Amino acid sequence: MSGSFTQVGEQAWQWLEAAAHYSETDDPAREGVTRRCATPEHHALLEALRDWMEALGMTVRLDNGANLIGRHASPHPEARTLLLGSHQDTVPHGGKYDGIMGVLLPLALVKYLKDNAITLPFHLDVVAFSDEEGTRFSSTLLGSKVLAGTFDAAMLETTDDEGISLGQALEAFGCRPERIAEDAYRPEEVIAFLETHIEQGPQLEREALPVGVVSAITGIERHRLTVLGRAGHAGTVPMAMRQDALVGAAEVIRLVDTLCRETEDLVGVVGKIENAPNGVNVIPQTTTLSIELRSPKDEIRRRAREQLMAQIEDSLTRRGLTFDAQLTYEQAAVACSAWLKGELEDSVRESGITPRVLFSGAGHDGLAMQSLCDIGMLFLRCAGGVSHHPDEAIQPEDLTAAVQVLVTTCRNLARREAAA
């Protein structure tokens, strides 16, 4: 064979190192990678990706949502398509692998197929989604919504910190946002969507496994809760007569933490707090905090919400406090397709790795793509579970293992497609 798994794994590593320098930061190792949608850094990365794709014999196009799509064509023009990919954008000062690794690993897959003259009865479309994180326009899952046909044109009116709208930014990027609806794939032409991504958690590393198979993408809900008390002089109001909103908020934080620790498949956090009047000698009158709950099972998350709100009401009432709670965001959990999950497990096993199934506690492009087709995910371990941080790290040999799993999956899907 003219190309080995090790060789294409090493190529993926080199591509990842090169991609990290298309960033608003100067030193990815120290400052992380900052790459936002429809910026010069995004454009420069896509030019590099285009070069790499075309060198592999792929046809490349930019759609009107700023997604770059490279096709490794099947010898059968009327064949269906397997979509692979992930997002190119990052959080501010993020890591080198979150998102972009899921673009470059499929390119390594294509390189292996090309080097070894392996043909498939379906097309491979590798997608660099324009915007999953929503860092610039709060346009979460922009790219994948375009392909899935669920993009809301109202998103084009959202603006960045400089007042530039998403629509204006896409036009400047060379897109025609008024034609985004034309870029959606048709369900009948797609086999499935498969994403590779770093785990963003510690489980695979703890179990010494290079890859794992994802069962579901978590459901998420966020609340804005304001505890209402009464301000007063901190030196003159007796402790027993106080209505201290911050003390009540502290009790809310404890309740959230305790509930999540005691409930299987539930995680949560209070990540933001605003206190008023916020004086050193004033009893807090209002404290506003965010509450986030996540679970791969929506019934667990919703039941936890009901339990938590009842506990909060009971606790704050006993302290003479009231509260106002608003649900500000809710995204249902999405299960990965059972048949594709099974195919990935078989491919992991055939690659000499013990299959490990785990759920994703973070959101991914599959949340949008499931409206179009069946979805599957393959996780790669990351050091310490660190993500969204310059210290994000993977092992080069895990890229090799992942490419082997992807090649095996494609071979198995080829047999499945031929039998359909």
From TrEMBL:
Chain ranges passing through the membrane: none
UniProt keywords, alphabetically: Hydrolase, Manganese, Metal-binding, Zinc
Question: What EC number(s) are associated with this protein in UniProt?
Answer: 3.5.3.9
* SUPFAM superfamilies hit by this protein: Bacterial exopeptidase dimerisation domain, Zn-dependent exopeptidases
Give the cofactor note text: Binds 2 Zn(2+) ions per subunit.
The record ties this protein, via Pfam families, to: M20_dimer, Peptidase_M20
User: Mind listing the GO molecular function terms for this protein?
Assistant: allantoate deiminase activity; metal ion binding
Domain of life the protein comes from: Bacteria
Q: Where does allantoate bind?
A: 222, 281, 294
**Domain Peptidase M20 dimerisation per the UniProt entry, residue ranges:** 222-314
Annotated residues that bind Zn(2+) 1 are located at 87, 98, 197
Q: Metal-binding as a keyword?
A: yes
> Which prosthetic group or cofactor does it need?
Zn(2+); Mn(2+)
Q: Which residues bind Zn(2+) 2?
A: 98, 133, 388
Q: How does it assemble?
A: Homodimer.
Regarding protein family, the annotation reads: Belongs to the peptidase M20 family.
Instruction: Please give the name of this protein.
Output: Allantoate deiminase
**Species in which this protein is naturally found:** Halomonas cerina
Question: Source taxonomy lineage?
Answer: Bacteria, Pseudomonadati, Pseudomonadota, Gammaproteobacteria, Oceanospirillales
